[in-house]
């Protein structure tokens, strides 16, 4: 039986798997040892996509691609945005990707580095879920991310690219620092994945890092 639900799985840092109808795509796998505290990413999927070409986002060899020709349920829209606040002259460019299966829309923001323009804001309105960096330093700072999220009003916010006591770059911020800027309580999961339906969940969802 075909489904339009999307399973979202966090592998640490900015790396996720989106799965719908047995088709899966891995986003932003990081190279072994590039991000402190995270074990290697080793996944099998139908597709791998990277927001930009930095080693903590572009290790395509971490993903073994299936040979079967599964039908891709997603249409993907890409928005090119600077990785920094200087039109990409410091860190290059970054892709925001919007995945649409005809019922649900999920956006992965990669390392967004500057505020959205009006056209981008319009395209990102009312998403069912966003996977968004909240630690700052290499990306927009947490206050800018919080303001952006209040403008585009997604149903579900999944934080990524932050630091804890056990993982993450020491120069980026923590999840609690970001949550202080938000009006919504966070739900902490025991596992690293959840299923997004047309009705559930909502709010800030924090998958656990299970390690490898």
Number of strands: 14
**Residue fraction in strands:** 25-35%
Sequence stretches where pLDDT stays below 50 over 5 or more residues: none
Please list the strands of the largest sheet in the order they lie side by side: 7-8-9-10-11-14-12
How much helix is in the residues?
Answer: 10-25%
Amino-to-carboxy terminus distance: 32 Å
Radius of gyration: 16 Å
> Number of helical segments?
3
The helix/strand class is mainly beta
- In total, the number of domains comes to 1
Q: Would you state the CATH class?
A: Alpha Beta
Q: What form results from the Cα inertia axes?
A: globular
Give the second-level CATH assignment, the architecture. Answer: 4-Layer Sandwich
What is the fold-level CATH name, i.e. the topology? Metallo-beta-lactamase, Chain A
What's the mean pLDDT score? 92
The biggest beta sheet, please? Answer: 7 strands, mixed
Describe the structure.
By secondary structure, this protein is mainly β. The chain has one domain (6-206): 4-Layer Sandwich (Metallo-beta-lactamase, Chain A), CATH 3.60.15. Helix content is 10%, strand content 32%. It contains three helices and 14 strands. The protein has helices spanning 118-123, 142-152, 175-179, and strands spanning 6-12, 15-20, 23-27, 43-45, 47-49, 63-65, 75-82, 93-100, 105-108, 129-133, 156-160, 186-188, 193-196, 203-206. The chain has a seven-stranded mixed β-sheet, covered by helices on one side. Strands 5-3-2-1-13 form a five-stranded mixed β-sheet, with no helix packed on it. The protein starts with 5 loop residues before the first strand and ends in a 6-residue tail after the last strand.
């Amino acid at each position: 039986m075909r489904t339009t639900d999307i399973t979202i799985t966090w592998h640490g840092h900015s790396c996720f798997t989106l799965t719908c109808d047995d088709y899966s795509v891995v986003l932003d796998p990081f190279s072994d040892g590039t991000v402190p505290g995270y074990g290697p990413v080793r996944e099998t999927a139908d597709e791998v996509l990277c927001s930009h070409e930095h080693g903590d986002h572009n290790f395509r060899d971490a993903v073994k691609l299936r040979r079967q020709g599964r039908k891709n349920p997603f249409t993907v829209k890409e928005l090119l945005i600077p990785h920094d606040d200087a039109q990409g002259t410091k860190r290059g460019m970054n892709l925001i990707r919007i995945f649409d299966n005809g019922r649900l829309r999920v956006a992965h923001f990669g390392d967004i580095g500057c505020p959205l323009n009006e056209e981008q804001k319009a395209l990102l309105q009312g998403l069912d879920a966003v996977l968004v960096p909240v630690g700052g330093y290499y990306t927009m700072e947490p206050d800018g991310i919080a303001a952006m999220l209040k403008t585009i009003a997604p149903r579900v916010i999944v934080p990524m690219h932050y630091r804890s006591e056990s993982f993450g770059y020491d120069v980026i911020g923590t999840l609690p620092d970001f949550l202080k800027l938000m009006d919504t309580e966070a739900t902490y999961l025991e596992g690293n994945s959840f299923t997004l339906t047309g009705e559930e969940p909502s709010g800030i969802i924090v998958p656990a890092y299970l390690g490898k």
